[in-house]
User: Fold this.
Amino acid sequence: MDLSKVERLAQMLKDARRAVFFGGAGVSTESGIPDFRSTGGLYNQEWRYPPETILSHTFFQNNTEEFYRFYRKKMLFPNAKPNAAHEALAELERRGILTAVITQNIDGLHQAAGSQHVIELHGTVHKNFCTRCRRFYSLEDILHSDGVPRCSCGGIIKPAVVLYEESLPTDAIEDALDAIAASDLLIIGGTSLAVYPAAGFVQNYRGRLVIINRSPTHMDRQADLLIDQPIGETLRETMKLMGGSRD
Ligand code: CNA
Assistant:
């Protein structure tokens, strides 16, 4: 761990008036949830179809049973717990430094860590709806079902997760763009910035920019501070340096 970089991050957070965090699957790898594009990630595992095909709207419609086989096995981690990154971000919000967590993740771990203002660009596995009558079902309901989960009305239940080919929720887009526009520090972490339109939200950022990612991203040259270390460890060390209060 490069402590001088951690020191700089701690100072940037102390100086910030409205910091925002924008993250992805890499934030949850230290909780045991694999990401898509790392070596051990889902894109490097053998499966009959590539993940972006299985996780597409068309595939859900035409191969619902296979979709659910993949989804249950690879996207649901009911026992995962928030790690040091989720906890640090929740603490930064409590201290009035961080105004929003914008996430591409669907695992609900930011909320589990206590973050209040979480903008879920790609939805969540914790909400599921009947495609016919819109009745709500919990993650537990999905975990306790077999094959294709069905509503009491007979309709197929679909997770409130944004699949490839589907649009992002309008309110989440607006909320994310507002939070980014009002911020003076943006921390991007645990994301390859390869999935659009989400990655486009941070592309032209003009404030101070920190990137914490284990592998390179196309925005690295724009960053005021670049940390290629695990994000949980990085934020844990940063919080230690920040001490108990803002100053
Ligand atoms: P991605 O494309 O898999 O990229 C993850 C990035 O994080 C990679 O660049 C890694 O190098 C980096 N990374 C991995 N672990 C760490 C770590 N501990 N510290 C720092 N960097 C790390 O994932 P994106 O989020 O960019 O792609 C967007 C997809 C992935 C979204 O649609 C998500 O819904 C989807 N996804 C979400 C989850 C989840 O909810 N936990 C899991 C897997 C995939």
The two ends are 24 Å apart (CA to CA).
